[in-house]
Design brief:
Length: 182
């Protein structure tokens, strides 16, 4: 698993500068919103955001800080999906999807204890993932990935239902975010 390849894939899907009137994120470049760029020290016009700055932000905020590299050691495809989901929906949402899926797949706590849905990767979440992976193997990783993608798809549809302006993005979200690893 190479985080730089994942970042290149995200940037390819996100594209360059955009300021879509329906996008609450406002001006973006390389998929980085102006608010995230500002929070990370960039003060210039978003059209001038260097690609290298975007890469550094992606790596730090959406890979290193949430601990997805630890997930990648056990379940690389799940870590890839968490990274992509975090970029599009936030780290807490992506990690929450993982925790919810692990809880639903633990056979009423016979395989490992339920996780507190704290939306953070920690020792208990990694332990549950390790136990799930040991029990279910590579096929289990594929099922876990499907569960995360199902929650992601449901959230996209809810976003479009709750805010009609988001319908402008729904097709692209479903086409480019769900099952992109396939």
């Amino acid at each position: 698993m190479d985080i730089l390849t994942l970042i290149d894939d995200v940037i390819a899907r996100e594209g360059g500068y955009s300021n879509h009137p329906a996008d609450r994120g406002g001006p973006t470049n390389w998929g980085i919103t102006q608010a995230v760029a500002r929070d990370n020290g960039f003060v210039g016009d978003m059209r001038a955001l260097p690609r290298a700055t975007a890469v550094a932000i992606y790596r730090r905020i959406y890979w290193d800080q949430p601990g997805y590299a630890f997930v990648a050691e056990m379940a690389p495809s799940v870590a890839s999906e968490l990274f992509d989901t975090a970029v599009n929906m936030g780290v807490g949402t992506a990690t929450g999807f993982l925790q919810r899926a692990l809880n639903a797949l633990n056979r009423n706590q016979r395989d490992y204890p339920d996780l507190t849905l704290d939306r953070a990767i920690g020792a208990r979440t990694l332990g549950a993932l390790r136990a799930f992976r040991a029990l279910r193997g590579k096929a289990g990783e594929a099922v876990l990935l499907k569960a995360i993608e199902a929650m992601q798809g449901e959230r996209y549809i809810a976003l479009a239902e709750n805010r009609p302006a988001n319908e402008a993005f729904l097709y692209g979200w479903l086409a480019n975010r769900i099952g992109w690893l396939s």
